[in-house]
Structures are given as C-alpha cells and as structure tokens.
C-alpha cells in the first residue's frame, strides 16, 4: 500500500468512526472503540514507515545517522549540515592506518598517540579499544553500513581519509589466528615435574617470535604455577635446558626394562638391534641411554610422553634445569 493509499484508508476509517459516534452519543459504542484503536495502530505504523523512509533517504544521500568517528566534524550552515575533516586529528588517523599496515601493534600506536598528545574530542586519551575500533571502521575510506550488521552499505558523501587498499591491508594485519582449545596442546614434562623451591606443579607456556626473514621461532618455557607460594622465586626453564638435564642421567634412568609398557619395550628393542648392528662395542645400558637421548631431542610428542611416563622418577625444576628428587 502506497503512502497516499494508506492516508486515504485512514481518512475513511475516521469518517466511519464519526458516524458510529453520532448514532449513539449517550452509550459507549463498542464498534466505535474498535475502529478508534485500529486507526491509532495504523497511524503509528504509518509514522514508523515514514521514519524508516526518511532514514533510508538520508543514507542514500551519503549521510551517516550516528555520531561521526574521530577525525570528522559536523558543520551547520544556512543550507543545512555537512561533514568536514577535523584538520587537527585527521593526519594522525591516517598515520595510524599506515603504522598498522606496517605491522605496528595497537599498544605501539597508543604510545605514539600519547607522545603526540592526541586526544578525543573531550580531551581524553585514546584508549586501546578505541584504536582498534578506528582501524576497523570503513567510514574512513568512504563507506558505511546502516543499520549495523544489516548488510546494507552506502557511499558516504564525506571526503575519505584513506584508500580502500590501505584499509584492506590493515584488516589483514588485525586478523588474529584462531586459538586452540585450552588443554589441546600437550607439554610432555609439566605433569611429571614439580617446583624444587615450593613444591607447586609446573606449567608450560609457548612463545613465538617472528624474525625479520619471515621465519617464526617457537619456544617452550616451564615455570612454577605458584599454587603453594605465590611469591616463589624459582626461575623459568626452557625446554632445551630441561632436556639437557635429562641427558646427563640418560644411562641411569631405566634400570628394569621388563617393567616398561609393552610398546615402549618394543621400541627400545628395535633401537637396540640397530645399535648392535652398527656398533662393535655394544652395551645394553648404552643403547637404552642412546634411545632416551634420541627421544628427548628428536622424538615425537607421543614418544616423549610415553618415555617420561615410564621413567618412574620424580623430577623438579631448579635453577632452570630438571633434577632428580
């Protein structure tokens, strides 16, 4: 139903209500009340349609019906209002996008803004969350979505601060790799070690470092969970240092091969046969020690976990190394 048709329909209902009221002036007419309620509902619906039509018309004209993001102002004049660039903050907004495209973090950008005393319109520091909100806002390259998450995009009538290409580069930089489920990663030594100083359990953290040549280094750090002593001073230990501590005692870690799990015995037997075939001076304890050394240095995660589980010894983290206790 068009706007004119709806107005004509409402007018005819109003005429009907008037006729019903004139027929029965002294008694409350139920039909008249029903028509009256229906007219009010139609009028409210008509107002909502008009408001939505007006909002859509504004958006199609390139006018964003919200508070403008940092870097823009609304200017009023005799011919209406328009959007102008905030000459004080706009250069910093552009620089923020360029820094993010070059790999700078949000915290680095925040420190840079604070050093340059760049603030919000209310003279407050720009928070980290606001920085990421700015970097993800497509309004800066000339487009906006309204309502939010509706999928309806409009071309803004304002002057863009950045290009679409720069915006796309920044979005790629801001992507965060999906994190694995908690507990999905297996760290073979943490469940078999305790803290030497306070007796707390040991936890492990994985750290990654990106080098200039594009490669990524992965490092494992074991440290006290501080469940017993929150102020425990036992230093962290790298996985490499823990492995080196085990290698020092590798010839004495397994004394009874028959007490091991069947799969581990089979693996050690195969390894021993290889040692026997390639070495003239063969000793069984040396072959077992060599197998332990191979597993902790180059074995798979399954082999490491299986081996540590069968060592039947207590390990503790002390001075960045694993020791027997």
- How would you state the average pLDDT, rounded? 79
Query: How many domain units?
Result: 3
Order of helices and strands: HHEEHHHEEHEEEEHHHHEE
* Proportion of residues in extended strands: 15-25%
- List the uncertain runs: none
Total helical elements: 10
**Spatial gap, N to C terminus:** 86 Å
| Biggest sheet, spatial arrangement of strands | 5-9-10
Give the class from helix and strand content and strand pairing: alpha+beta
Largest sheet: 3 strands, mixed
The helical percent reads 40-55%
Rg (CA only): 36 Å
Total beta-strand segments: 10
Shape: elongated
Explained architecture:
There is one protein chain. The chain is an alpha+beta fold. It folds into three domains: 3-60; 72-164, Alpha-Beta Complex (Hect, E3 ligase catalytic domain fold), CATH 3.90.1750; 190-324, no CATH class. It has helices spanning 3-23, 30-60, 90-101, 106-115, 128-135, 164-174, 239-247, 262-278, 284-298, 301-310, and strands spanning 72-77, 80-85, 143-145, 153-155, 193-195, 202-210, 216-224, 237-238, 315-318, 321-324. The strands form four sheets. Strands 5-9-10 form a three-stranded mixed β-sheet. Strands 6-7-8 form a three-stranded antiparallel β-sheet. Strand 3 (143-145) and strand 4 (153-155) form a beta hairpin. The chain is elongated. The chain starts with a helix and ends with a strand. The model has no long low-confidence stretch (mean pLDDT 79).
List the helices and strands and how they pair.
Blueprint: H1 3-23, H2 30-60, E1 72-77, E2 80-85, H3 90-101, H4 106-115, H5 128-135, E3 143-145, E4 153-155, H6 164-174, E5 193-195, E6 202-210, E7 216-224, E8 237-238, H7 239-247, H8 262-278, H9 284-298, H10 301-310, E9 315-318, E10 321-324
Parallel strand pairs: 5-9
Antiparallel strand pairs: 1-2, 3-4, 6-7, 7-8, 9-10
Helix pairs in contact: 1-2, 3-6, 7-9, 8-9
């Amino acid at each position: 139903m068009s706007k004119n048709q709806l107005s004509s329909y409402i007018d005819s209902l109003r005429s009907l209500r008037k006729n019903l009221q004139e027929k029965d002036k002294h008694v409350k007419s139920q039909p008249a009340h029903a028509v009256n309620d229906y007219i009010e509902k139609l009028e409210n619906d008509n107002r909502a349609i008009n408001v939505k039509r007006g909002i859509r018309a504004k958006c199609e004209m390139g006018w964003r019906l919200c508070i403008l993001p940092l870097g823009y102002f609304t200017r009023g004049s005799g011919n209406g209002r328009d959007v102008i660039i905030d000459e004080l903050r706009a250069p910093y907004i552009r620089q923020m996008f360029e820094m993010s495209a070059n790999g700078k973090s949000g915290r680095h950008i925040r420190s840079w803004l604070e050093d340059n005393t760049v603030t919000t319109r209310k003279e407050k520091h720009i928070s980290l969350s606001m920085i990421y909100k700015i970097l993800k806002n497509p309004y800066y390259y000339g487009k906006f979505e309204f309502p939010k998450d509706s999928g309806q995009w409009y071309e803004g009538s304002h002057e863009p601060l950045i290009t679409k290409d720069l915006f796309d580069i920044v979005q790629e930089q801001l992507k965060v790799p999906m994190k694995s489920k908690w507990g999905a990663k297996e760290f073979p030594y943490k469940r078999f070690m305790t803290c030497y100083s306070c007796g707390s359990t040991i936890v492990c953290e994985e750290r990654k470092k990106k080098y200039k040549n594009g490669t990524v280094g992965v490092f494992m750090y074991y440290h006290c969970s501080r469940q017993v002593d929150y102020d425990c001073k036992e230093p962290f230990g790298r996985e490499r240092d823990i492995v080196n501590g085990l290698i020092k005692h590798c010839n004495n870690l397994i004394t009874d091969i028959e007490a091991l799990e069947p799969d581990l015995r089979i693996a050690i037997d195969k390894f021993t046969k290889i040692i026997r075939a390639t070495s003239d001076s063969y000793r069984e304890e040396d072959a077992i020690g060599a197998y332990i050394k191979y597993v902790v240095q180059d074995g798979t995660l399954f082999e490491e976990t299986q081996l540590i589980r069968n060592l039947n010894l207590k390990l503790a983290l002390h001075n960045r190394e694993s020791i027997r206790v």
